């Protein structure tokens, strides 16, 4: 009988040991699962937080450069930067009005959408800039430049269109009086399509050669210089927004030229363009 009891006890102890081992194993597995799911929850929360921050940042309007209205800079007599003749609804500006700058009452607004990577824009500037600037000095027109970026794909990943438009915004913000010189210089130094675009250092050199003080502070952000504005692409979001606005308004290519809001195709003939402008001012009938 003692032997039977001893055998029964051994079986009971074996069962108890097995139960304890199973319980311990189950506890370990439960702990491991808890740690695993806790880790997954933490990762998900981090991902959600990062996505939320990115969405928030994308939703922010970004910096708006001074002296640009509705994505453009308007030049009048004496290279004076002025308000557009008709201010966009909801926008205000401290710039002088065209009348205050000596522009004729019947002056036409010539709007040029351009991309600094665009060979056609360079040709337009070379062909028409002397005539247009003469009309500006006479007070016959307000010349409105609207840099956009639609040709980034032609600079081998350099995003030259965006970066050069950002440079223009940096300069117009701080030194609008040299804007027209910078525009000319950017076209003079235009990289060929399909090649690498200019580096930041090269863009800054182009600006300096055009008379830009790259150490000057921005009007939109006095803590930042023109050089920092270029290297940090401070107005990149602004360029993206104004480019999309241009496309939404019907711009299909560059150069895209409007006279008093109406597109003209007389972009390769200065005399024909001048006649169309003078008709728009009423100085020539028919």
From TrEMBL:
Pfam families: Thioredoxin_4 (PF13462). Residues 102-273 form the Thioredoxin-like fold domain. One of its GO terms (molecular function) is oxidoreductase activity. Keywords: Disulfide bond, Isomerase, Membrane, Oxidoreductase, Redox-active center, Signal, Transmembrane, Transmembrane helix. It comes from the Bacteria. The chain crosses the membrane at residues 35-56. Belongs to the thioredoxin family. DsbA subfamily. PANTHER family: DISULFIDE BOND FORMATION PROTEIN D, GLUTATHIONE S-TRANSFERASE KAPPA. This is Protein-disulfide isomerase. The lineage of its organism: Bacteria, Bacillati, Actinomycetota, Actinomycetes, Micrococcales.
């Amino acid at each position: 009988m003692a032997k039977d009891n001893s055998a029964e006890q051994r079986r009971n102890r074996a069962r108890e040991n097995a139960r304890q081992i199973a319980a311990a194993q189950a506890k370990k597995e439960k702990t491991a699962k808890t740690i695993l799911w806790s880790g997954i929850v933490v990762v998900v929360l981090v991902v959600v937080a990062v996505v939320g921050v990115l969405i928030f940042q994308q939703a922010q309007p970004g910096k708006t450069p001074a002296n640009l209205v509705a994505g453009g800079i308007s030049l009048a007599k004496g290279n004076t930067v002025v308000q557009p003749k008709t201010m966009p609804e909801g926008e205000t500006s401290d710039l002088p009005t065209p009348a205050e700058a000596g522009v004729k009452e019947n002056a036409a607004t010539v709007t040029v959408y351009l991309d600094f990577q665009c060979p056609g824009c360079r040709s337009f500037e070379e062909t028409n800039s002397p005539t247009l600037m003469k009309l500006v000095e006479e007070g016959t027109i307000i010349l409105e430049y609207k840099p956009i970026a639609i040709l980034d794909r032609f600079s081998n990943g350099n995003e030259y269109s965006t970066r050069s438009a950002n440079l223009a915004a940096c300069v117009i913000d701080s030194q609008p009086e040299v804007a027209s010189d910078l525009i000319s210089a950017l076209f003079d130094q235009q990289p060929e399509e399909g090649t690498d675009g200019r580096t930041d250092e090269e863009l800054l050199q182009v600006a300096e050669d055009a008379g830009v003080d790259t150490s000057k502070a921005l009007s939109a952000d006095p803590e930042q210089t023109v050089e920092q504005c270029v290297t940090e692409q401070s107005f990149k979001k602004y360029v993206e927004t104004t480019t999309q606005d241009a496309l939404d308004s019907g711009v299909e290519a560059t150069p895209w030229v409007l006279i008093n809001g109406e597109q003209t195709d007389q972009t390769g003939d200065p005399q024909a363009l001048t006649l169309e402008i003078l008709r728009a001012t009423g100085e020539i009938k028919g």
